[in-house]
């Protein structure tokens, strides 16, 4: 479903503007269940993670409600592990972009990792961690189609 990698890097550049200038929303991940929603497009979610293991490991769950069968780009400001689940099954990413690739092709050092997923309509669990940082910043964008808005 997704376009060329160049199209994806255009979306990463767009996400970078939101990573820099917002709008922002703060949510706190949960250890059980779906966790709070991260559903507003063009929004930088500042996700407060919870202690999940000894030795200062952090993680937790939030959810995203996909509005339809579509490709979604999830960008993060860190390398924390991310697993997506729909209806209890793990959703494998179509593509994972590294920090080096993102920086060289989109000139956005704020985004450290980007994932392209095809999601079905409905709620998707986003499971972060375990990682060494107590928070992560995330932006979710549709990977194609117009989402008009003002900056």
Strand order of the largest sheet: 1-2-11-5-9-8
Approximate shape:
globular
Average pLDDT over all residues:
88
Number of helices: 2
Instruction: Give the distance, in angstroms, between the N- and C-terminal Cα atoms.
Output: 27 Å
- Annotation, overall tally of beta strands: 11
Strand content: 35-45%
Write the element-wise H/E pattern from the N-terminal end onward.
Answer: HEEEEEEEEHEEE
Q: Which structural class fits the helix and strand makeup?
A: alpha+beta
Poorly predicted sequence stretches spanning 5 or more consecutive residues: 146-151
Cα gyration radius (Å): 14 Å
The helix content, as a percent range, equals: 10-25%
Main β sheet profile: 6 strands, mixed
Your description of this structure?
This protein is an alpha+beta fold and 151 residues long. 17% of the residues lie in helices and 44% in strands. A 6-stranded mixed sheet has the order 1-2-11-5-9-8. It has a 5-stranded antiparallel sheet with strand order 3-4-10-6-7, with no helix packed on it. A hairpin with a 2-residue loop joins strand 6 and strand 7. Mean pLDDT is 88; it is low at 146-151.
């Amino acid at each position: 479903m997704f376009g060329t990698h160049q199209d994806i890097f255009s979306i990463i550049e767009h996400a970078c503007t939101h990573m820099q200038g917002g709008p922002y929303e703060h949510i706190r991940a949960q250890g059980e269940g779906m966790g709070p929603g991260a559903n507003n497009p063009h929004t930088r979610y500042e996700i407060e993670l919870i202690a999940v293991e000894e030795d200062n490991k952090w993680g937790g769950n939030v959810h995203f409600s996909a509005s339809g069968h579509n490709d979604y780009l999830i960008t993060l400001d860190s390398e924390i592990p991310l697993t997506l689940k729909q209806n209890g099954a793990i959703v494998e990413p179509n593509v994972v972009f590294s920090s080096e690739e993102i920086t060289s092709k989109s000139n956005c050092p704020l985004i450290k990792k980007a994932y392209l997923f095809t999601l079905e309509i409905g709620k998707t669990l986003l499971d972060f961690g375990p990682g060494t940082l107590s928070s992560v910043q995330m932006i979710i964008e549709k990977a194609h189609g117009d989402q008009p808005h003002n900056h």
